[in-house]
Design a protein that fits this description.
Blueprint: E1 19-22, E2 29-32, E3 38-44, H1 48-63, E4 66-68, E5 76-81, H2 86-98, H3 100-106, E6 109-114, H4 115-120, H5 122-127, E7 133-135, H6 143-149, E8 155-157, E9 177-181, E10 183-184, H7 195-199, E11 203-204, H8 207-219, E12 224-228, H9 237-240, H10 245-255, E13 260-264, H11 273-281, E14 288-290, H12 298-303, H13 310-323, E15 328-335, H14 342-355, E16 359-364, H15 382-405, E17 411-419, E18 426-431, E19 436-440, E20 450-458, E21 463-469
Parallel strand pairs: 3-4, 3-5, 5-6, 6-7, 7-8, 9-12, 12-13, 14-15, 15-16, 19-21
Antiparallel strand pairs: 1-2, 10-11, 17-18, 17-20, 18-19, 20-21
The protein binds S-adenosylmethionine and iron/sulfur cluster.
Iron/sulfur cluster (SF4) binds next to helix 7.
């Protein structure tokens, strides 16, 4: 979600006694401290969870007097990793190998954390002996201690007992946008997915903690709050026997009616009418739902252990569209799951048309060791998987374009995220329903502010607009 501002960051974090530099768009704080003892460079791979985990690591390191830097000045390089698909894993090993000269020339400490580190443990140091520290998905608050221990042989810390999700210092790069974890881990065990094994069992934060943290971000100027979890819809279900996610949305909307509130990811099994009504009735909950379908045939959905049928998904998608007008519905789809026949794949294509997804992330099935699906024969030939993926992408591209075209001629309020990566002369912004809009920059600094734009044209993935005003 979202597009990061493309200002060339050279931030070095320091909580106290440090000078503050301002990003050109003035809404993003950078701070640095020339007298800093130790410097770290962060390399982040994977999903939004990792981006937010990195904010917490920055918080923990800042509190211990470390400062962030580029690779050239770093005393330690920390990689936050992903292992959801094999391609991500291979890319990571490539990047790790490329860091070897830093170690040999300057003795830089190399630390690898996150999902791949959790999965591999000490095996990662066996494979890459220039790695000093391996830490798992529950060790972010201890990062300074782990770096301090590096030097006397490889350090590995991947215990998964007792996740700490509340009261962790967090160092954000943007004032206007905040990410808040409401659940950690996942209990769903979809048969293809490694996340429950590397992120652990689902734990929800207490509601008062979440509300308090949102309050802090709002007081600091946040205009967009993003609630994060592998499955936000099961928020507090384990603790209280029912999902409290709808209650959380309503409470946050009442308490903090100004900022836009977004959330991800929703799970079709737990996404219910209460949540849909909460979105419709709460003024500042954005009309955007990412609801991964994964596959369109009941046979494959059962084999994936998804916990819903195509009929149930369709019913919920229909209710969402009728109760929340203008909602954007996006999804994830996997092609080539074991046993996927031509008929199964046709059922996926049919579901995509029926649901009219506004956006879709499409993946080739990739067996992950340790998951239950990895014990099934990976029997869809690679060329068939690829051919199906292309056919699927043709359909999803067409639907995305149609969805974008439907906004042309409307006036939209957007939140400006920063200059566009491709063309810094244009602003990059998102509508409430999460559509990307680009428009010409004027002299005003609009980064992190709301703006009114007329939507003038649609491209394949984004909209073009013209600024018509700035709300008072
Ligand atoms: N919790 C979220 C959910 O259920 O949608 C996100 C989980 S996962 C990090 C993001 C997406 O990766 C999944 O929705 C799925 O489509 C895809 N994915 C996960 N495991 C995969 C695998 N083994 N092969 C291909 N795609 C996979
Ligand atoms: Fe993985 Fe399923 Fe959990 Fe999503 S809900 S993280 S796909 S196990």
């Amino acid at each position: 979600m979202g597009q990061a501002c493309d200002f060339p960051f050279r931030p070095e974090g320091s909580p106290r006694g440090s000078a503050w530099r301002r990003h050109p768009c003035k809404r993003i704080r950078l701070h640095y401290n020339k007298g800093m003892r130790k410097r770290y460079a962060l390399m982040i791979f994977g999903c939004q969870m990792n981006i937010h985990d990195a904010e917490r690591m920055r918080g923990a390191l800042d509190a211990e007097g470390w400062g962030e830097s580029g690779l050239e000045e770093a005393d330690a390089v920390i990689l936050l990793t992903c292992c959801v698909r094999e391609s991500a894993e291979q890319r990571l090993y490539g990047r790790l190998s490329a860091l070897k000269p830093l170690k040999e020339e300057r003795g830089v400490v190399i630390a690898v954390g996150g999902c791949l580190a959790q999965k591999e443990g000490l095996g990662l140091i066996d494979r890459m002996p220039h790695v000093d520290v391996v830490f798992g998905t529950h060790q972010y608050p201890d990062i300074a201690l782990l770096l301090a221990q590096a030097g006397g042989g490889g350090v590995c810390s991947t215990a998964m007992d007792g996740v700490r999700i509340s009261g962790i210092p967090c160092s954000r790069r943007e004032d206007f946008r905040a990410w808040i974890t409401i659940t950690h881990g996942c209990d769903n065990f979809c048969s293809y997915c490694i996340v429950p094994y590397v992120r652990g069992r689902e734990e929800s934060r207490p509601m008062e903690d979440v509300v308090e943290e949102v309050g802090v971000h709002v007081a600091e100027g946040a205009r967009e709050i993003n609630l994060l979890g592998q499955n936000v819809d099961s928020y507090r279900r384990k603790e209280e026997g029912k999902s409290r996610f709808a209650d959380l949305l309503v409470l946050l909307g009442e308490r903090y009616p100004e900022p836009w509130i977004r959330f991800m990811t929703s799970h079709p099994r737990d996404f219910d009418l209460e949540i849909i009504r909460a979105i419709a009735q709460t003024g500042n909950i954005c009309e955007y739902v990412h609801l991964p379908l994964q596959a369109g045939s009941d046979h494959i959905l059962t084999a994936m252990n998804r916990g819903y049928s195509r009929h149930e998904y369709l019913k919920k998608a229909g209710e969402l569209r009728s109760i929340v007008p203008g909602v954007t519905l996006s999804t994830d789809l996997i092609v080539g799951f074991p046993g996927e026949s031509d008929e199964d794949f046709s059922a996926t294509l049919e579901m995509v048309e029926l649901c009219r997804f506004d956006a879709a992330f499409t993946f080739l099935y990739n067996a992950r060791e340790g998951t239950s699906a990895s014990r099934l024969p990976d029997d869809v030939p690679a060329h068939v998987k690829r051919e199906r993926l292309h056919r699927l992408m043709d359909v999803t591209r067409r639907l995305t374009y149609a969805s974008l075209c439907s906004e042309v001629g409307t006036e939209q309020t957007v939140l400006v995220y920063g200059p566009s990566r491709k063309d810094p002369q244009r602003w990059s912004a998102r509508t409430r329903n999460n559509k990307l809009v680009h428009f010409q920059r004027s002299d005003d600094d609009l980064c992190g502010r709301f703006a009114h734009v007329n939507i003038t044209a649609a491209g394949s993935w984004s909209l073009h607009g013209e600024l018509v005003g700035i709300p008072g």
